[in-house]
Amino acid sequence: MSTRMEDRTKGFYGTLVSGEKLAVIANQIYPLMYQGIDTKCRIDDLLLIELAEKDVWGESKFALVCNEGVGWEQDAYGTIPVPTNVGHGWLNGRVHISVEVIKSCLTDKKVDIAEYVRVFGDRLDDNVAIWQNAMTEKTKKGGRVNA
After folding, report:
1. Does residue 39 contact residue 86 with C-beta atoms inside 8 Å?
2. Which helix (H) or strand (E) holds 132?
3. Is the pLDDT of residue 143 over 50?
4. Residues in Cβ contact with 58 at an 8 Å cutoff, skipping those fewer than 6 apart
5. b/e code 12-31 from CB counts within 10 Å (16+ = b)
6. Which of 18-27, 71-80, 99-108, 116-125 has the lowest mean pLDDT?
């Protein structure tokens, strides 16, 4: 497999999600999960993609993907585990946030997943291909995934 971004298949778009906005939400959830936590988490910007698989009600199903191509799929409850970073890593984890709330954190930036995931060896190229195979459709440049 190639490790050059130019060689990746293009045309699979998602919408960038503001990590800063997600962190505001996650920082409200953490104290409820862990009594006495007053440390604030941070969340990197993530890419929201639409998957070909539908949820149990036949509606679109989504996933969040980070810049290494690692991703988290929507569960049966309509939430996605959002990865968080806290301090020196003692509380790095995930906070489940509903797809609808995640959508409220969308930016207006559409990004091709082939360009979003950084280049660093075959593993990241494989991750891109895995998510491309899972996505709803190959959209035209600038097209919007139904998010």
Report:
1. yes
2. helix 122-134
3. no
4. none
5. bbbbbbbbebbbebbbeebe
6. 116-125
**Hunting for tokens 């800063």 — which residue is that?**
20
Residue 70's SS3 state is: coil
Structure tokens at 50: 């639409």
**Token digits for 10?**
């293009």
Tokens, residue 85:
């970073």
| 34 pLDDT above the threshold of 80 | no
CA distance 146 to 54: 13
Question: CB of 145 within 8 A of CB of 108?
Answer: no
Cα–Cα distance, 58 to 44 (Å, whole number): 30
- Contact yes or no for 27/144 (Cβ under 8 A): no
Positive or negative: CA dihedral 113, 119, 123, 129: positive
* pTM, to two decimals: 0.84
